[in-house]
Fold:
Amino acid sequence: MVKYLKMLLWPFSLVYGGVMQVRNALYDTGTLASARFQVPVIAVGNLTVGGTGKTPHVEYLLRLLHKYKIATLSRGYKRKTKGFLLADGEATAERLGDEPYQYHRDFPEVTVAVAEDRVLGLQRLQQAVPDLQVIVLDDAMQHRPVHPSLNLLITEYGRPFYHDLVLPAGMLREPRSGAARADAIIVSKCPEMLPLQRQHEIKAAIRMYSRKKAPVFFSTFTYGQPVPLGQAARLANKLVLLTGIANPVTLVRYLQKQGYTILHHAAYPDHHSYTLQDMHKMKEMLQKDLFRGASVLTTRKDAVKLAGEALQELTHTLPLFYIPVEVTFIDEKDKFDKLILQHVRQFVS
Structure:
């Protein structure tokens, strides 16, 4: 059925892909202008719609570059505000968007800003913080009006861009040839033990579309100890999983591997805005016999919204936890770190 649906959608993919190729050609030839900046602008993006793990990789960069005066700039997807906005003491997920608010909460020393127009956003950001040394652009692969000084492309191990099709037949935002703009490619969500032969096969497939000298790195997720948000101090073995992310498969597999029993997965769409009704529904579920003694586990991205002022009075009564996640590079962490740090030092003495 899926195969036939893709065949039906394929003509529309050809049209969309053609439009994106023309657009990219106009930028590549200079017919449409891309703005460059005097500070290092590191773009983190992908060719695929959602779920490749951009946010933990942005956080990795923020930790790596902590000695510098650093900022992040995002579009602020699904926020309830418009235009350029700097995160401050009144920041919320509704005002900034999920990921920027998470950066603001977890990295208080980092300047966090949002703007639909990234060129204007970068200009306003530099005006607001004149001593900025590094800017990380979140989800900016297709934002061609900005010419980043370093372009990092993330593709997921379980759904690599070279096996995918352009929207709507597939999940690609642009044709595979877009990988040629990347200065480095990161294959995310890999198994912890990834054989060298498999790495070579993936690199060969990627280099059919990327620049030959662009390095390819492999990363995996490392999950930390669950952190309580509600009334319980210890996570139970029986779980209700609560997610509003694009691709929770990696987390589900990890929990199952760790021996947890997932009684129910409340899987909301990516960037879901939780309501009191959602939380009341969760509380009622936990009172049923099947779920007695179970804990509710969510992601950090969801937790920053669930702990918001409108919901915290109710969520604090639940046995609610979130699980931290960090990126770990397989084999070549030092090489990746060196690439980033040397690039920044070209701008910052």
